[in-house]
Task: structure prediction
Amino acid sequence: MSQENSTPEKSQEMRKRILLGVLGAVFVGVMYFQFFSGGDDPKGTKPLASNGVKPTPTATPAPPRVGGSPVPIVSQPLDLASMSNRGPSGDGVGRNIFIYPTPTPPPPVKLPPTPTPTPPPPITLFSVNPPGVIARTSEFILTVLGEKIPPDGKVYLSGREYPTTFVSVTQIKANVPADAIRNAGNLGIEVRSVSDAKLYSNQLSLNVAEPPPPPYRYIGLIVRKTGTTAVLKAQGGEEEVLNVSKDSKFGHWKVISITPQKVVLEDTNIKVTHTINFTGETG
Result:
């Protein structure tokens, strides 16, 4: 009798266990679907928001249409790697906008070549005597002093050779005619060797000055039977008036000729003549 009562009790215990197992499986399935399902939840099984309101699903916009037919939307992802890792030429070198290129240095300045210094002349001249003369005077002897003057050295004035006398290696003389100093100015003096063109000197200068003119004006003419007299008036503060005739002398001046147009005077010191044109009292 105890065996009959134990059998129904065992059957009832077994049914309870099976029912609990089924309920546990259903509970696990519901939990899995609730938290791990990736579907679109068309039945509203998604969890509620914190305020208890179910979130509204986002509507997918309809594709545009052209002529009643849908136009496909083509989307191309940005190649961020190529934009950040490749330069504008696509050579794979990254470009940093905060790094400026090194400026190209200017080309080197070409300095002019250093001129080769001219060697000093083999013959050196120091001075000449006289250092200056007056134009239109007579011929004179020019003495040139220097060193290393060769025996065949010649004196040149403005490139023209003149008769030369060699005195020593430090002195040489030249005869300068009146024609060489007819005009005022500076004449360059050089000494050169006749036999060797490499033997030449530095250049000195001879000053040729204008002769001083007579300080008088020709203001009048007196004609007599005994001769003609020119009236000269001194220039300057005193304004002395002189009556002079041909061949008369006053100071270092001598009257050479008298005409109504001019008077010719000679400077007796340097033997130079001057012409004074008639100007009258107001000239």
